[in-house]
From TrEMBL:
SUPFAM superfamilies: lambda repressor-like DNA-binding domains. The lineage of its organism: Bacteria, Bacillati, Bacillota, Bacilli, Bacillales. InterPro entries: Cro/C1-type_HTH (IPR001387), Lambda_DNA-bd_dom_sf (IPR010982). Gene3D superfamilies: lambda repressor-like DNA-binding domains (1.10.260.40). One of its GO terms (molecular function) is DNA binding. Pfam families: HTH_3. This is XRE family transcriptional regulator. Residues 8-52 form the HTH cro/C1-type domain. Coiled coil: none annotated. CDD domains: HTH_XRE. It comes from Bacillus thuringiensis. Transmembrane segments: none annotated.
């Protein structure tokens, strides 16, 4: 995001057309974006679909998230 000139989540969210809260949730892995939202993010970041998929859905990141979810201590 920074490379493309977005210095804040708010400015990026405005360019994408969603709330800053939505971008925060995406970046923190709270939920997965819809197909339409991912395409808009790729468009705003000037990425091809292949580039975007490689960045946002790499095996490393996916495996790291699964590991963190699996090893997360439940809260009471």
């Amino acid at each position: 995001m920074i490379i493309k000139g977005f210095k804040t989540r708010k400015s990026f969210a405005q360019a994408v057309g969603v709330s800053e809260h939505s971008i925060s949730n995406l970046l923190n892995g709270v939920y997965n974006p819809s197909y339409l939202l991912m395409n808009k993010i790729f468009e705003v970041l000037d990425l091809t679909a292949d580039e975007g998929m490689a960045i946002f859905f790499s095996n490393y990141l996916r495996n790291k998230k699964v590991y963190e979810d699996f090893n997360h201590e439940p809260t009471a």
